Amino acid sequence: MSESKNFLRTIVEEDLKSGKNKEIVTRFPPEPNGFPHIGHAKSIFINFGIARDYNGHCNLRMDDTNPTKEDTKYVEALKDAVEWLGYEWDGKVRFTSDYFSQIHDYAVELIKMGKAYVDSTDEEEMRELRGTVTEAGKRSKYAKRSIKENLELFERMKKGEFKDGEHVLRAKIDMSAANMKMRDPLMYRIRNVHHFRTGDAWAIYPMYDFAHCLSDYIEGVSHSICTLEFENNRDIYNWVLDTLGLTPSRPYQHEFARLGINYTVMSKRKLLELVEGGQVDGWDDPRLPTIAGYKRKGYTPASILNFCDSVGVAKANSMVDVSQLEFCIRDDLNKKVPRVMCVLDPLKVTLINYEGSEEINAPYYPHDVPKEGERKLPFSSEIYIERDDFNENPPKGYFRLTPEQPVRLRHGYIITCKEVIKDENGNSIEIKAEYSPESKSGSDTSGIKVKSAIHWVDATTAKTVEVRLYDRLFSKEAPEGVDDLNPDSLKVIKNALIEPAVITDKPDERFQFERQGYFYADPVDYTDAKPVFNKIVGLKDSWGKKTKIAEPAKKPQVKKVQVDGEVVAMSEEEQARFDKYTTEFGLNSEVANILARDEQLTSFFEDALAVLNSPINLANIVVGEVARELKEKQVDELKFTAKQIAELVKLIDDKTISNKIAKQVFEEMVKSGDNSSKIVKAKGLVQISDPAVISPIIDEVIAKNPDNVAKFKAGNTKLLGFFVGQVLKATGGKANPKVVNQLVHEKLK
Ligand code: ATP
Ligand code: MG
Questions:
Q1: Which of 320, 175, 221 shows the shortest CA–CA distance to 262?
Q2: Cα–Cα distance measured from residue 324 to residue 262, given in angstroms and rounded to the nearest whole number
Q3: Residues of 126-137 as b/e, b for ≥16 C-beta within 10 angstroms?
């Protein structure tokens, strides 16, 4: 895959071009204190991706300077994650502890230069002496120690002559530095503990800030890429290397924004709590955002890498919607995996007019003609369907089996309900039905109309399997703790029924269970005696905002086959359109789904597309705006044409107007039928992208809101949205939001 260009890659290219670096060397430096998560995947993707694409190399280095929390099992998990994602580290796995001697020698050198001292102040006093953001700190009285005394004390610290916390080694920098991190940062601390690699050899351990830059230097790293929270540490990074004169070909630190995803927690510490607290079943529990969890759940490396690419590399932290990750896995599996049938909650159906048995040839890849492979579906008079696919008192819009409404068995015949058998509590336990002999899929001459096809299995040959349905681990978007856990994050179905070929042919490890979602043969618990499948992801996003765009699909006039909570199988034609829209045009599956299933919208969209080749923006307007109009009117009653919509979208593509303004222009077009360019001109709606125009407006907003400015500077970064919103409002929505965002960000830095 080719990764998008981002600011880190731009830096790398410039450094190569200017001759600053001859070779690009990066590193991925995790601390082995937990299993890696999807945030680490992003770091792996960036570091290994850059090294690979610029013919350099990337080291895998365990940052093992905190012996109390580290363990070899985490080292193995980290190696596993990198390999599984398809990357190779340079040479052997490296460890910061490999460099403990060298790092120690550099510390001695700094002491000899008078640039480091042993401090014996206790922790609390040290904190007080450090000062505050507005107040300079005071240097500890121990800073006056002679070089000789410092050398002796440091040697004794190393030999283990002192208790934990009795002394520390500090860099002598500047107690009044504006950057608090530069106020004589700690370099070494005493820890009388066993280290998983160096054993009891050391009683002192270097701090991250001292060890990291030196390890990078020792390894010849050119670009030390880390996350934003280390921005203020960059000054120490530079101070250490510059002061020691390690400058000829020294590494430089660059920061990017951490990846955050909603409905989960991400730090290893919080994940460890869940694992140790038994809220999940180990580090590879499929509900965790760990690489091991995704791997076990059935995610593919490609889907994770695509996701990392799609979220981009930015300088501002943001929260990514988990549905974006789910989209990536769905997108990867859609064409690749066989489609089979599995009934999760079986209801027996007896076909009273069918005798004997037969085998129906059914393709594994029904919607991907070039990919071959089929299996035989056994069929006889006893089958099982999903309990949900029969309803005696169907709500409006229910398209499956009812006492009045026949339904098609996927790949098979049309059946009609004749009798419902119930238990003493009134629950349906069996359906007696008739099949139509002339209705076989592919050679149907029955003339019977059905509204949907349902999945099923043959009773005598079906295999019993366990199916594990996973849902989000937390029910809150930004969970705070175990109170926010989703009680329904795991549902185990012990007796699901699956068509036999899945178990005997084993055509793959991943499947689409038709109408249910994507599933994966559990790599740990699956046995031939007891097959177990994990749900990877559903067929469409059933959470959150995105489902809202599906609303136009429920309009009465244009006949739709969308029923709450399920996807009715598409016709072959619709499916072909859907596939084309998602793969060729890159539409997201929700938009493609709405378009593909609606002939009016499809033809409108394609007419516009013939005028302007801009499928994504066109599809968004057609699904988001045009669909609303078509709910009440026929195409020939509209005041605007497909060509005019194409012209409107052209204005967005040219950045003449923003998406938001486009909606306003559209409303006008609906009323007047005027051309978009005329409306834009008449109303003065041209987008403002010129920083010189936007800048003074921002200054005004900043001047009017001193309280919010102070809060923002104190760390409430959520207020960025407030400022951007105010500026947009002040320009009547005409300012280019991207430009505003960037300018506000710069001004408030
Ligand atoms: P955690 O808080 O989960 O333990 P960390 O930042 O302490 O994370 P490390 O093991 O020290 O994790 O990190 C290894 C590398 O991965 C670092 O360069 C770090 O910046 C990066 N990294 C960690 N979390 C994320 C994230 N959420 N997004 C992007 N990169 C991350
Ligand atoms: Mg950490």
A1: 320
A2: 11
A3: beebbbeeeeeb
Q: Name residue 419's amino acid.
A: E
Residues having CB closer than 6 A to ligand 1 are: 29-31, 39-40, 42-43, 63, 226-227, 258-259, 266-268
302: β partners: none
Locate the ligand 1 atom nearest the alpha carbon of residue 31 and give its number. Answer: 10
Token readout for 698 is 């921002």
Which tokens sit at 673?
A: 């039928």
DSSP string, 448-494: ---S-EE-EEETTT-EEEEEEEE--SBSSSS--SGGGB-TTSEEEEE
Residue 575 DSSP one-character state: H
Closest to 183 in 3D by CA, of 126, 253, 108, 109: 126
The residue whose CA is least distant from atom 10 of ligand 1 is 30
Length of the chain: 749
Residue partners of 134: CB distance under 8 A and separation at least 6: none
More confident call, 563 vs 450: 450
Find out whether 117 and 107 touch, Cβ atoms under 8 Å.
Answer: no
Band of residue 3 on the pLDDT scale cut at 50, 70, 90: low
Does residue 562 register a pLDDT over 90? no
- How many angstroms is it from 29 CA to the middle of ligand 1? 8
Q: What is the pLDDT of residue 369?
A: 54
Question: Who's near 307: CB < 8 A, 6+ residues apart?
Answer: 38, 324, 325, 328
DSSP 83-112: HHTT---SSSPEEGGGGHHHHHHHHHHHHH
Considering only residues 236 and 726, tell me which one the structure prediction assigns the higher pLDDT.
236
Is 31 catalytic? The answer is: yes
C-alpha of residue 31 to centroid of ligand 2, in Å: 6
Q: Cα separation of 457 and 346, whole Å?
A: 9
Nearest CA to ligand 1 atom 25: 39
By DSSP bridging, strand 186-190 and strand 374-380 are: unpaired
What is residue 368's predicted lDDT score, i.e. its pLDDT?
Answer: 59
Average pLDDT over every residue of 40-69: 97
Give the other-Cβ count within 10 Å of 76's Cβ: 13
Beta bridge partners of 383: 349, 458
3-state SS assignment for residue 175 = coil
Residue 559 tokens read as 């006949």
The conformation of residue 199, written as its DSSP 8-state character, comes to B
What confidence tens digit (pLDDT) does each residue in 510-536 have?
999 999 999 999 999 999 999 999 999
Q: Confidence band (pLDDT; 50, 70, 90) for 585?
A: confident
Active site annotation includes 258: yes
- Which residue in this structure is represented by tokens 């179905």? 493
The CA dihedral of 724, 727, 733, 734, to the nearest 10 degrees, is -110
φ, ψ of residue 179 to 5 degrees: the values are -80, 110
Q: What is the distance between the alpha carbons of residues 115 and 20, in angstroms, rounded to a whole number?
A: 28
Instruction: Report strand pairing: 346-351 vs 428-435.
Output: parallel
Nearest ligand, measured from the Cα of 264: 1
CA pair distance 591, 547, nearest whole angstrom: 10
Counting ligands in written order, the one closest to the CA of 36 is 1
Tell me the C-alpha distance between 487 and 472, whole Å.
10
Q: Does 201 or 543 have the greater pLDDT score?
A: 201
pLDDT tens digit sequence for 141-188: 999 999 999 999 999 999 999 999 999 999 999 999 999 999 999 999
Q: Where are the alpha helices (DSSP H) in 1-99?
A: 7-17, 38-53, 72-84
